[in-house]
Specification:
Blueprint (H helix, E strand, L loop, with lengths): L2 E2 L1 H8 L5 H10 L7 E5 H7 L10 E2 L2 E7 L2 E5 L2 E5 L2 E6 L6 E4 L5 E7 L1 H5 L20 E3 L2 H18 L6 H17 L7 E2 L1 H17 L16 H8 L3 H12 L3 H19 L4 H7 L5 H12 L3 H5 L1
Parallel strand pairs: 1-3
Antiparallel strand pairs: 2-9, 4-7, 4-9, 5-6, 5-8, 6-11, 7-10
Helix pairs in contact: 5-6, 7-9, 11-12
Length: about 300
């Protein structure tokens, strides 16, 4: 699992030779407004050959998708089936995969970055909203009436982004806010738990998430995730479930695996850098040198200084 930027998003969904790719990147990446774009799925498919399956990645942008077609959304230990009409609210916090189940796909989606919404004088703190909460649900079934109502918002977006109205991005932020509030009134679709596949997926995602914390390349860099609970929250599963899955797959608990990887990185830093022990401790997420020294000695039977010598 990799982290996909907004620029990489265009290259991910379009052919390299598609002229729309450069057009979108050149016109929409504006440091003064952040990034926003909206797509008509049917028109996009005819303009460029899009990839049939979205890879299971974490993204650095937000995405709201109005779905018309049979699809499956996979994340954490859940698989959500959208049988006909639905809407998906994706945030950078949640790695997921979107898998079309047939060729009859239409609808709209918009992508935007946090700084796009931050430009509004009445900006929503989108990360604090239930619909973008890492612990919440983000896929919703729609009736035909609900679909048509939300479709009208996307149609207004699609028309506005092509206009030369000087304040169009302010208006587009309002439309995004309208979509968010419409979504928060909906009831999420219940997930279909797939025990074997989900367990394998969670185990794999955990290891990839852990490895993304490394290598530590400067004393100013610091681990973002340190505890089993923090990893579980990022993977949208209960910490007990994560422990169970990893214990069955590796014979070790989440905490043991994390400690082992931190120890491995500590050894590398002690051997290959001239950073002092305090700098290494802080970069590995320890508030006190003594805490790091005690941790390292418990793992290796040596103090950091003795190991380095």
């Amino acid at each position: 699992m990799t982290t996909i930027s907004i620029n990489e998003f265009y290259k991910e969904i379009f052919d390299d030779k598609c002229q729309l790719t450069e057009l979108f990147l050149n016109e929409q990446n504006n440091i003064d407004i952040g990034h926003f774009n909206v797509f008509n799925i049917a028109e996009m498919s005819s303009a460029c050959k899009s990839k049939p399956v979205m890879p299971y990645n974490r993204r650095t942008y937000y995405k709201i998708s109005l779905i018309n077609g049979h699809n499956r959304v996979e994340y954490a230990d859940k698989e959500i089936e959208v049988k006909q009409r639905g809407i998906l609210f994706a945030s950078p916090k949640i790695p997921y995969r979107y898998v079309p189940q047939n060729d009859e796909q239409s609808g709209f989606f918009c992508v935007f970055t946090a700084d796009f919404m931050d430009k509004s004088k009445t900006a929503l703190n989108i990360d604090s909203l239930p619909i973008f909460n890492a612990k919440g649900d983000f896929v919703y079934q729609l009736s035909e009436e609900q679909f048509r109502e939300i479709e009208q918002i996307f149609l207004k977006m699609n028309n506005e982004i092509q206009s030369d109205y000087v304040y169009k991005y302010d208006l587009l932020r309002n439309y995004v806010t309208e979509l968010i509030h419409a979504g928060q009134k909906l009831k999420p679709i219940d997930g279909i738990h797939q025990t074997h596949n989900a367990a394998s997926r969670i185990s794999s995602l955990f290891i990839e998430l852990l490895e993304r914390q490394f290598p530590i390349e400067s004393p100013s860099q610091s681990l973002q995730l340190r505890t089993a609970k923090e990893y579980a929250e990022n993977l949208r599963v209960h910490v007990n479930h994560l422990n169970k899955v990893l214990k069955e797959a590796t014979g070790k608990t989440t905490t043991e695996i994390i400690a082992s990887r931190i120890t491995q990185e500590a050894k590398i830093l002690l051997r290959q850098t001239d950073w002092n022990v305090s700098e290494i401790a802080i970069s590995l997420g320890f508030d006190e040198v003594a805490h790091f020294s005690n941790f390292f000695k418990k793992q290796t039977q040596l103090s950091p200084l003795h190991f380095r010598e």
